[in-house]
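Q: I'm writing up a methods section and want to include an example of the input and output format. Could you take the sequence below and give the corresponding predicted structure tokens, formatted cleanly so I can copy it straight into the document?
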Amino acid sequence: MTAELVRGQNHPLPQTRLEIRVSAGTPIVAGATLGDEQGRVHGVERVAHPGAPTLPGLEVSRQAAADHRLAVDLEALGEGVHRVNVLLALPLGTAGPSRFAAVAAPFVAVTGLDGTEIASFTLTGLGAESAVVALELYRRQGAWKIRAIGQGYAGGLADLLADQGLPEAGPLAAAIQDAIALGASRSVAAPPPRTSDDARVRTPGPGAAGGPAPVGAEPPAGLAPQAVGDGGPINYAHPRRQTSTPPAPAPVAPPAAPGEPARPVAGDAGGWSMDERLYNQVWGMFEDLARAVAAYRSAVDFADSRMEQELDRALSDPRGRMGVAGDRAREEARVKREDLVGRAKEALDRDLAQLSAESEVVEPALPPAYARWDNPVWHAYRVPMELPMALRIGDLRLPEQPELRIPMLVRLPLERGLWIDSGRGGSDEAVFMDPDQIKGLAVDTAVAVAARLLAVYPAHEFAVHVIDPAGSAAARLAPLTRSGVLAAPPAAGAAGVSEVLARLTERVDLVQMAVRAGAGADALPPGMDTAEQLLIVNDFPHGFDDRALNQLRYLADEGPSVGVHLLMVADREEASEYGPVLQPLWRSLLRLTPVPDDHLADPWVGHAWTYEPPLAPPGSRVVEQVLGQVGEAREAWPR
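A: Here is the clean output for your methods example:
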């Protein structure tokens, strides 16, 4: 039976290999410290955090997320470790909350590897604190126990670590926050908060607020299709995606044969319009796939761990290691492991088949803003009169089902800039490509993203500027220049770079002053373009001096809030001479790649998703045709 702890209460731990699951309503940082008998931490090498996520016997999450799974093997910690403190903190320097009073109470559960919950603790009563010691695992007379702590620190991680006696508390806290900020450029942001009337409603899993379903004992619950968190299979009637109040009812799935799941329907998630329902449905598919794969991987880990334990027990006696008895023990352990993995795979395949069926229905029904370039919806494209909720900037997939591609949607207007990485990075495909070929594909990706932005904005509500200092991308930028959609020809040379940056920086300053003064658009200088602005920068840092560099950083930080957005095409290694001065710039941008690369993480369980850029099919002229229509609409717009 699970022990529901209150602050200060302790409970014995019946086993030493554990999972600690954290569920919160907002992305938080999870970490742990290893202390001596007095609880003192003797060095940074005894702190597990996103920048150093693995220590002997301990592994924590590599990024800020709403759900975390920490792995602990108490027997592998070493004799000098007597306390393990689980830390939670809010990321600093983000748009999220800065104190725990502004978020839902975090929930922490300690489970065995078989998913059996041992103890849980809800951290209530927090106020101005931005960091908290949630739990303590401690050794007493050779046995391990757990204690609910809930000690918060208004001074954040620095104060928390200093309280545990760490001499380098301040620098380490800063390094942790830097690692989180850098990881944010590699993560897919969760959809913005919605009210109960328009949210994708889910039934929380056992003991967790919508977290991944835990694996069970015999067999693990992860072997059943529990990816959606309530112990049941994915249901295409989607009761967890429904709402009760939208004025326009969502489509109803046609009846299925008895014993079969309901047939999928496009737009059956909650929302006030078909645009919003499809947006919520795509995010629901993304989340369902993440959790289904998490349950499968958790079940496989459990099966591997149990096989190792059984082999250790069976072969601990040297007399039984050789001969028929040893072979039989190995075979029995292997058969049990294969049975568990096979049942987990059956459940995963069932969930993946349902999601694939949903994708086959949803993909053709998507509007241009959400559709791939090969979708027939582009044949009937017309310049819109209203801005959609979001934009597709690529696809995401997992290795368990590479054919199932989930649209990667970002909300509009853009809340952060984009960076097309023209370096080799860690992609297997890029390793064998010529550097010039990668740079060319990076420009093609930037053109495709810019074309999609231009296509979904009403005429004259989106302006595009290009900086190409050496003119190296002139041929690949031709679709933008020929269609007449650019505000001006691509800027070249140091003078061109300086002129464009100065003009956009001045625009940001003027709009910010008008906003602070509570003035309207009529307070801006006559002739100022009030449309959203996109600046494409190619071949960075060529043509940039120190002044231009500072202006670019200013636009990246301050521009999105007043309608000035950045789209960088750059190889980070080529700008390495600037050192740490450019770290804030890279962290402020969402990194994309011109070739498939598994560098993006989801906000729920942190899978490494393979990102595919939104390039048109080879030989297709759809981008040029769409840009041509946008250019004609702008030309016909009354001046």
